[in-house]
Design brief:
Helix content is about 70%, strand content about 5%. The chain is mainly alpha-helical. It is globular, with a radius of gyration of 16 Å. The chain has a single domain, classed as DhaL domain (Serine Threonine Protein Phosphatase 5, Tetratricopeptide repeat). α6 packs antiparallel against α7. The protein has a two-stranded antiparallel sheet. The protein binds magnesium ion. The site of magnesium ion (MG) has 6 residues, from loops.
Length: about 220
Amino acid sequence: MMASVDTAALLDWIHRFRDVVTEKRDWLTELDSAIGDADHGANMARGMDAVVAKLDAGAPATADELLKTVGMTLVSSVGGASGPLYGTLFLRMGMSAGPVTELDATALAASLRAGLDGIVARGKAEAGDKTMFDAMAPAVDALDAAIAGGADLVAATEAAAQAAAAGRDATLPLVARKGRASYLGERSAGHLDPGSASTTLLLETLAQATADSSR
Ligand SMILES: [Mg+2]
């Protein structure tokens, strides 16, 4: 049973997220071309490349500095809505984490909750608006519930990833109420929200990095 996620595991998470958004760049772009401006895959891949380049040049030793570096790099390198939203997510996670080298289950959950609150503060999204919130909010709730129920971090982050995927899939029939997709009105229904898709990748890679670091 693993009790915490250390900075090496956080770094592994960031690398995995970069790898998967690069691998799935065309899919994310395809989703965004249906209801947005077809740049989500390219934006996320470019942003995460910049993040990894920055961290490879010298990764901070503490969780707060590491997460803040990710956030600031995304804000400065990704345009559109996703740069500020993902940037805020990581900046708030870093502020919550503090100058520590590992996060236990409670601290990781609090950090993700702070990140979610940051997304809400910046994007003003609510449940069912067909945004990244629809994957992130159920994931954070599932993480809290799993931890409260006594699950270890591996099981808890896996539960969060599954909740994110269910939230992503539930965006399919929704009519978008936020962002560029909302301009399409009813025509936005029948497509997955790209932000909820990349957010699910974020939670899935967190679960993978957590599972891997516990071996
Ligand atoms: Mg876009």
